[in-house]
Specification:
It is a single chain. This protein is of the alpha+beta class. Helices cover about 30% and strands about 35% of the residues. Helix 2 crosses helix 3 (about 40-45).
Length: about 190
């Protein structure tokens, strides 16, 4: 995807975030209070002057009661029942070394979705809260090693290992290396 494609996604995402704020009748200042993100950063994201990080999107998803995949799907067309590999939406957070592929995008009538995550060696991705409290997650490592901290317990997962839990508080995903890690994440709304 060229830089124009990324800018287009950022523009649609910024517009959707502005719509969600407007639907609630919130000023940027009120959204800043709810999310803990500065007004200037929120303004720049809504105007697509900067690409949001995974952590920032997670905070906004929490405020708006959405999973990240649902938010990202709202800036795309209607989801298909069959999603070909070439049509799966990929979102990259270059700041944290995280690539997220929506293998089975969310659908309003369904509670589950499947995501492929990739972290580069040394990457560390922290979420301060779940996008939806009580969200069920299953992480299955396909290649490499993944450190997952959930409910204040750190778990080291190697290829083939699976961890499942309900997300109530902060979580952290890290790739200790030496190589990158690739994992499947099943997400189920409560």
């Amino acid at each position: 995807m060229g830089s124009g494609g990324i800018a287009d996604v950022d523009a649609r995402l910024g517009a959707r975030l502005a719509e969600l704020r407007a639907e609630r009748g919130w000023t940027l200042g009120e959204l800043a209070e709810h999310s803990g993100i500065s007004r200037s950063t929120l303004s720049r994201v809504e105007r697509a002057e900067i690409s949001p990080t995974a952590s920032l999107l997670n905070r906004l998803c929490h405020v708006y009661g959405r999973t990240m995949s649902l938010l990202l799907s709202e800036v795309e067309g209607e989801p298909a029942l069959l999603v070909r590999a070439a049509e799966q939406k990929v979102w990259t957070d270059t700041a944290s070394g995280f690539v997220r592929r929506s293998v089975s995008p969310p659908h309003p009538g369904l509670r589950g979705e499947l995501v492929e995550g990739r972290l580069t060696a040394g990457a560390d991705l922290a979420y301060d809260r779940p996008p939806v409290p009580g969200l069920e997650q299953h992480v299955w490592v396909l290649d490499g090693t993944l450190d997952v901290t959930a409910q204040d317990v750190r778990h080291r997962l190697d290829a083939g290992d699976c961890l499942r839990w309900r997300v109530w508080g902060p979580t952290r995903f890290g790739c200790p290396g030496p190589g990158d890690v690739r994992y499947a994440l099943a997400v189920v709304l409560p």
